[in-house]
């Protein structure tokens, strides 16, 4: 009986979010003539972790409160560029690739720009908010190194054109 319950018992339910059509998100200049105006709040979540660097765009319909996935870009954190002459190395990835403030900020900036370009959105007119987070715990010798990493993440957002 136990074997049969395992085979035909409860199964996990995997939630799947269908991406929203970008045409619905962008403001329509002719929307003043429409009866219903769909207003979307677009937020980006940027995360640099031990293995991946991600930018996830979501759009929330301000009338209904429904949030939908727009686009997601994932890059490997180990693909950060090597340090240039004069740059200070403050940490390294799990695979031993060194981090500098400039190299991490360039990786973050490229990830944000790629994500928005694939979604055909503009940073200045369409993006409203950016959440920055990090899960990197490897290769830091002091709390100051973690602070440098967080500053590099913020610099990358500024380099991409996100307003402070």
What does this structure look like?
This protein has helices at 2-8, 22-25, 101-118, 143-160; strands at 40-48, 52-61, 67-76, 89-92, 98-100, 129-134. 24% of the residues are buried. It contains four helices and six strands, in the order H-H-E-E-E-E-E-H-E-H. The mean pLDDT is 83. It has a single domain (15-160), classed as 2-Layer Sandwich (Nucleotidyltransferase, domain 5). The strands form two sheets. A four-stranded mixed beta sheet has the order 3-2-1-6. The protein is flat. With 164 residues, it is an alpha+beta fold. A hairpin with a 3-residue loop joins strand 1 and strand 2 (52-61).
Brief summary of the model shown:
This protein is an alpha+beta fold. It has helices at 2-8, 22-25, 101-118, 143-160, and strands spanning 40-48, 52-61, 67-76, 89-92, 98-100, 129-134. A 4-stranded mixed sheet has the order 3-2-1-6.
Topology (elements, then pairings):
Blueprint: H1 2-8, H2 22-25, E1 40-48, E2 52-61, E3 67-76, E4 89-92, E5 98-100, H3 101-118, E6 129-134, H4 143-160
**CATH superfamily descriptor:** ATPase, nucleotide binding domain
Estimate the helix proportion, in percent.
Answer: 25-40%
Mean pLDDT: 83
- Helix- and strand-based class? alpha+beta
**Shape summary:** flat
CATH top level label: Alpha Beta
Residue windows where pLDDT falls under 50 for at least 5 positions:
none
**SSE pattern:** HHEEEEEHEH
Q: Sheet with the most strands?
A: 4 strands, mixed
Q: Provide the CATH architecture.
A: 2-Layer Sandwich
Number of domains: 1
Number of strands: 6
- Kindly report the CATH topology: Nucleotidyltransferase, domain 5
Bin the strand percentage.
Answer: 25-35%
Q: Any idea what the radius of gyration is? A: 20 Å
Q: State the end-to-end distance.
A: 61 Å
Strand adjacency order, main sheet? 3-2-1-6
